[in-house]
Specification:
- This is Molecular chaperone DnaJ.
- InterPro entries: DnaJ_C, DnaJ_domain, HSP40/DnaJ_pept-bd, J_dom_sf.
- GO terms for molecular function: unfolded protein binding; zinc ion binding.
- The protein is α+β, with helices and mostly antiparallel strands and 329 residues long.
- It has 3 domains: 157 residues, DnaJ domain (Helix Hairpins, Orthogonal Bundle), CATH 1.10.287.110; 71 residues, HSP40/DNAj peptide-binding domain (Sandwich); 94 residues, Urease metallochaperone UreE, N-terminal domain (HSP40/DNAj peptide-binding domain).
- A 4-stranded mixed sheet has the order 8-9-13-12. It has a 3-stranded mixed sheet with strand order 3-7-6.
- The longest helix is centred in the N-terminal third of the chain and has 19 residues.
- It is elongated and about 95 Å long.
- The chain starts with 5 loop residues before the first helix and ends with a helix.
Length: 329
């Protein structure tokens, strides 16, 4: 989810007063209003964008929260912006905040005259960004149409906007599957994350997005998965790669070594005269396939030779004798 600079969107300074904000919004909203730009999707999106910015900073309570978020986010960026910014700390809570339109139909008429409220009664509508929804708990923009000077507003029906939420899990959780308790804004639900997900995978929670307009259906919530880096394994699709140290005598003589997998230890047979950085394949010991969790990728084990420490004088002497014999071969 991206941070929204509402001041830049409206072209006003960060200390702008209400009069300046309203004047800037009126100018931009008239420019991009759908009734002025019929069929122009780009103008329609710009109209929604400036309306969202206006709603966020013209309301005193929303503006106070937005300022807290903005200052914290900018501080995080100045300090290097490590990892992903934690938006969940700013997520609106049930009964804590709710969306209320900050402009009545009368105010809208005064500002825009005979222009409609962003569309006609048959339009499908469109919502504010996930950034706005996360902070203020609001679903879609309410749309309507002015049917003459005396008819007032008629609300439309529109499906709720989908939402996205990033969820971080471990590689072990991605292997076995896991669950997360998600606050959807009105209730807490347990979401199942299937086996085999990887960074960027989306888990759909139907009907858990923003509320619809009128009798419109709720949108969906998509969990965007981030699988954290693992200290032992690297991942390549459904395959895993790990490094396993072996003693030099094991490399020369061969033998069996234990290899840790995400599903327990297995035995790997090392043939005699194994070189360092040799790659062995353990079939079916990788990650489960997301599409078919009964199928697994492979685990590749790269050997890394380790030398013994604190050899005795006798052992060192024997190694020297061995080295001399090899030099004369």
């Amino acid at each position: 989810m991206d941070f929204k600079d509402y001041y830049s969107i409206l072209g006003v300074p960060k200390d702008a007063d209400d009069k300046t904000i309203k004047k800037a919004y009126q100018k931009l909203a008239k420019k991009y209003h759908p009734d002025v730009n019929p069929g122009n999707k780009e103008a329609e999106e710009k109209f929604k964008e400036v309306t969202e910015a206006y709603q966020a900073i013209v309301d005193p309570e929303k503006r106070r929260k937005y300022e807290d978020v903005r200052q914290n986010y900018e501080s995080w960026q100045k300090n290097g912006g490590q990892g992903n910014y934690d938006w969940t700390r700013w997520q609106s809570q049930p009964d804590q905040e709710s969306y209320s339109r900050t402009m009545s139909p009368e105010e809208f008429a005064e500002m825009f005259g005979d222009l409609g409220w962003g569309g006609n009664s048959s339009s499908s509508g469109g919502g504010f960004s996930d950034f706005f929804s996360t902070l203020f708990g609001m679903g879609d923009i309410e749309q309507g149409t002015r049917r003459g000077h005396h008819a007032g507003f008629a609300t439309t029906q529109a499906a709720g906007r989908d939402r996205e939420l990033e969820v971080s899990i471990s590689l072990e959780e991605a292997y076995h599957g896991t669950t997360r308790v998600i606050d959807t804004g009105g209730k807490r639900i347990q979401a199942k994350i299937p086996q085999g997900v990887r960074t960027g995978s989306k888990v759909r929670l139907a009907g858990q997005g923003n509320v619809g307009l009128g009798a419109g259906a709720k949108g969906d919530l998509y969990l965007i998965i981030n699988v954290k880096n693992h200290p032992t394994y690297s991942r390549d699709g459904n395959d895993l790669i790990t490094k396993r140290p072996i003693e030099f005598y094991q490399a020369i003589l061969g033998g069996e070594i234990k290899v840790k997998t995400l599903n327990g230890d297995v035995t790997l047979k090392v043939p005699p005269y194994t070189q360092g950085d040799t790659k062995f394949r353990l079939k079916g010991k990788g990650m489960p396939h997301l599409e078919n969790p009964k199928q697994y990728g492979d685990l590749y084990v790269k050997t890394r030779l380790t030398l013994p420490a604190n050899l005795s004088e006798k052992e060192i002497s024997e190694l020297r004798d061995l080295a001399v014999r090899y030099q004369h071969l």
